[in-house]
Structures are given as structure tokens and as C-alpha cells.
Fold:
Amino acid sequence: MRDIRTVALCKSYGAHTVLRDVNLTFPAGKTSAVMAPSGAGKTTLLRLLMGLEAPDSGEIIGMEGLRCGAVFQEDRLVDRMTVAGNLRLVRPALRREQILKALDAFGLSGCADQRAAELSGGMKRRVALLRALLHENDILLLDEPFKGLDEDTRERVMDKTREMLGGRTVILVTHDSAEAARLHANELYLPFGEKTDDERI
Amino acid sequence: MNDLLSRWARRLLPLLFWLLVWQAASVIIGREVFLPSPAQVAVRVFQLAGTTALWQSIGYTTLRILAGYALGVLSGALLAALSVRFRAVEFLLSPLMLTVKTVPVASFIILALICFSAQRLSLLISFLMVLPILYQNTRSGILTADRQLDEMARVFRLPPWRKLWHVTFPQVLPSLSAGCSVAIGLAWKSGVAAEVIGIPRGSVGSYLQQAKVYLETTDLLAWTVVIVLASLLCEKAVRALLRALGRRAERM
Structure:
């Protein structure tokens, strides 16, 4: 396993610079929390790491050949599939007991056969997180994975998440230091591009 | 129970109304050769149902129309997928699809009659009718599919078939189904029209043509009823098949 590095990463959309000269190192097998306020380009950074977009200049080193799992800004579940189906979609070999156990740990007992569309926002978020955790991958890219969870579930889910990370490299995007601390993450700060107050990016 | 009753009433009463209008018209006209009564047609349908000619011809025509339909659905959907993936395919196909869509069916039928045998005519014609509809509908289905799920599949590296079957197909299904439903009716209409012109032996169209030649209006309408029933039955079957496929694709 290698560290993942971004070298002089730049990205703009039109005249709007989102990332300017971003140099970060994400140590292999560790959890890194990218801290920055809204609109500072965290999501864009993740999209570049996922390979969904190409940087204008600079490069990302160490991602080649790694299997990726992700929680996106949105939940991105297949609405008409059941919860169990959504999890099996990324890992068909999952056994029923494994799924039930994982759902139980995330406070989702009894949801396995419900369609994703029928879940509440917080439940969907947890399923999206479980999907990334149960998927067999080397690196996890998590974009505010605990967004929309109420206080009790949030802490429980964070603890369970930490237990399930194994030796994976994790890049967590958040603006909450308590969240980073709870996941034993080292905090990294994103240098501002042109700071914006909105989240149009 | 009441619900079921009112649903049936909503369907049956209008039908009954139009049958009465038909009956009244035929009484006013008073000549079977111009407009036979519904009862006369119904009797003829039952008479025909007792003959092997009807079942054989229905079999003959259904087989060809459904073959053309299936071919049209598959190639329409496949070409649509290719056209979304490769812009060049879209540019290449767009004049072709426009042509197929706008050229009168009769021109195709006559052209096909010159080049091919009458036997395969209805297959070819229903294929041509179905192709542009399925192309268009599948395309718009794919284009409106959720990009975000696409990205999800990419990041998790879902194998292409799994993505296609479980992520893309269920999203395209609504517009695909709409296309399939419209197309099956058109396949029957155009396929039978082709048979009436090409008169392949033993086809439903050849009996329609016969009825026309001998001015057997009752026969003409009886055959028409049979064709409508066959077409509706096919549509029901296609819908049921698509629904079953949809349910299957949602299971993982």
C-alpha cells in the first residue's frame, strides 16, 4: 500500500478557481480528514481522486490500481432496489447474515428487504455508508458520510464505521473536528482557492 | 368490491354505448354490405373461430409480425445505446431513422414487394415501423437516466453487465415500455397492411383482401375484430414480459 499524494493540484470551473495548488499526502492505511468550510472545494477534490474529473494541472499519485469505495455528497442508492440489493450490487457474494449483522450495527434492523426509496434521509445515508464499507476496496472516499444523522445514531455509526475500516486508506471530507477525532483521523486543511460563500460547486 | 364493479362499469359502459351507436347506424343504413350489425359480425367471428383457416392464418401472421417486432425492438434498443455512446453513430443514423419514420408505409411495402417475397413482407414492414420508435424511446430513456448512479457504478467498478442489468435497465424501462406498447400496435397495423397488399398465401391479410374483393363486409369486420384481439393480446403479453423483467432486474 502506498501513500496517496496530490501534487500542485488545480481545478477551475470557468472563471471560478476551486482548487489552487493543493499538495496533500494521505498516508496509506490511515484515516485523513480533509477539513475546510463549505465551498472550499472538498467535493471537487474527492471527484478528482475518484477519477470522475481530470485536474487542470498537477497530478494525483498512488491511486493507480486501487479499488475505490465511496460515499458521495448524495446517497446515490438504486431507489427501486431493496437495501440488501443495494449492498449486494457492489458485492454480490455478501451473505444474508453478514448483511443483517451490518444493518443491525447501523441501527437499520428490519430494513433489509425495504426498497431504498422507502427509507428516511438518515437511513439512506447509513445504507450508502454501509455500501462503501462492505465493498471490497483499498481506499474509501467519504464525503460527509454522517450528514443528516441524529446525534445518537451519529456517534454509534461513527464508532461502528471506525471498527469496520480495517486497514484501508480513508479520506474523509468534513467540517466537523469532533467527527475527525472520533474516527481517529489526522486533520488536513485544504488551502482556499477563491473562497466562496455558497455551495454551488 | 364496489371499486372493482365501478372499474368494470367504466370500461364496459362506453363500449356498450358505441356498440349501440354501431347497431343504430346499421339499422338506419339497412344494408349488410355497407354496414353489418354488431350481432352479425359477432356471429361471423364465432363461425370463423371454428375453422382451421382462422387459427392457421393468425399463427402465420402473428409469427411474422412478432418476429419483425422483436427484431425491431432489439436493434432499436441496441442502436440507441450505441448512438448515446458514440456520437458518430448518432449522426450516421439520424437521417436513416428520420427516413424510416416519415416515408409512407405503402412505399416501403411496394418497394419490399419488388425486392423480396411476399412471405417475409410483414416481418420486414413491422420491423421498419418498430425500429425508429424504439430507437427514439430507448435513447431518451438512456439520456434521462441518472448520471449520479452512473458515476457510482464507475467508482465502485461494477462489471458492465451488472451495471447494465441492475442500474441502467430499470431506469430505461419506463420509456422502453412506452415505446414497446406503442410499437406493438403499429407492428400489427402495418404488418397486416403489408399482407393486404402483398397477399402472402394463408395470411390474415390475404383473407382481408378476399373479403374486400367479394365485398364481404361482415367478413372484413369479423377479421378486423380478430386482428384487434390478437394485437391487444400481444400488447398485454409484451407488457407482462417487461414488468417481469423489471422486477427481475430490481432483485440482486
User: Anything to note?
Assistant: Chain B touches chain A at residues 148-149, 151-152, 154-158, 162, 166-167, 170, 250-252 (CB under 8 Å). The first helix of chain B runs from residue 2 to 29. The mean pLDDT of chain B is 93.
